[in-house]
Automatic annotation (TrEMBL):
MF terms (GO), sorted A to Z: hydrolase activity
Main enzyme class: hydrolase
Key words of the record: Hydrolase
Similarity-based family: Belongs to the metallo-dependent hydrolases superfamily. TatD-type hydrolase family.
Protein known as: TatD DNase family protein
Pfam families: TatD_DNase
EC number from the UniProt entry: 3.1.21.-
InterPro entries: DNase_TatD-rel_CS (IPR018228), Metal_Hydrolase (IPR032466), TatD-like (IPR001130)
The gene coding this protein: tatD
CDD domains listed in its UniProt record: TatD_DNAse
Length: 256
């Protein structure tokens, strides 16, 4: 299994990162994609991923951290994408989060610039969303972004899901589907094409059902897979293999 979105570089894993990876191995989680979130953490992220053949990195500016944004960050990102050509798997985690107090115009500006860099470097993107599907879809269409990517932690409508799929994106399936109350998302994930789905945890955030208030971890990815298999009509092994292949199909340069 591939965890297509986790933040193993975060300090929440500093005390037991190697043990987490060992437990993941025992549970069949073999490969990880770690998106970047802020400029001052990119070097450490790259170093961590270079230390293991199983860890892959993306580079991007997450909307959460734009309070510290300056234009030089985009130049730095451009330079790193050039230096890490053949190693970086995507531009991300980028996106729009309209639940934040950070100015929406600034968010759109930074997101648009990162789309441009992804086009320039021929990379997919990993997209964060919250209360922002309409704006994201509008910008992706306006900029004619054709490299696709992953809509992280998808929780929109079936129509929105289909629009993203038509634009070349996969949908990130995470812990939300383990909650029975997440009826809308579970129904959408059960209905869209299997070829559009990838697995993720977003660890240490977005804990699965019955683990609320605890640190999330990639070790729980098999539980998310089981929840997905229960929602789908295809044989369980077909679902598992499809999620693996879909991740390779949409992200570049993944090492296992």
């Amino acid at each position: 299994m591939i965890d297509s979105h986790c933040h193993l570089d975060f300090s929440a894993f500093d005390s037991d990162r190697e043990q987490v990876l060992q437990t993941c191995t025992e549970r069949g989680v073999s490969t990880f994609v770690i998106p970047g979130t802020q400029a001052n953490a990119w070097d450490n992220l790259i170093s961590l991923c270079n230390s293991s053949g199983r860890l892959n990195f993306a580079l991007g500016l997450h909307p959460y951290f734009l309070d510290d944004y300056c234009e030089s960050h985009l130049q730095q990102l451009d330079e790193l994408l050039t230096q890490q050509q053949g190693h970086v798997v995507a531009v991300g985690e980028i996106g729009l989060d309209f639940s934040l107090s950070i100015d929406s115009d600034l968010q759109e500006q930074v997101f648009t610039e990162q789309i441009r860099l992804a086009q320039q470097h021929d990379l997919p993107i990993i997209v964060h969303h919250r209360r922002s599907h309409n704006a994201l879809i509008r910008l992706l269409k306006e900029k004619r972004f054709g490299n696709g990517g992953i809509i992280h932690a998808f929780s929109g409508s079936y129509q929105e899901a289909q629009t993203y799929i038509d634009l070349g994106f996969k949908l990130g399936v995470g812990g939300i589907i383990t909650y029975p109350r997440a009826k809308k998302t579970r129904e959408v994930i059960a209905k869209v094409p299997l070829t559009s789905l990838v697995l993720e945890t977003d660890a240490p955030d977005m804990p699965i059902n019955n683990k609320q208030g605890q640190r999330n971890s990639p070790v729980y990815l098999p539980i998310i897979l089981q929840a997905l298999q229960a929602l789908r009509w295809e044989p369980a092994e077909v679902v598992k293999q499809a999620c693996w292949q879909n991740t390779f199909d949409i992200l570049v340069n993944i090492k296992t």
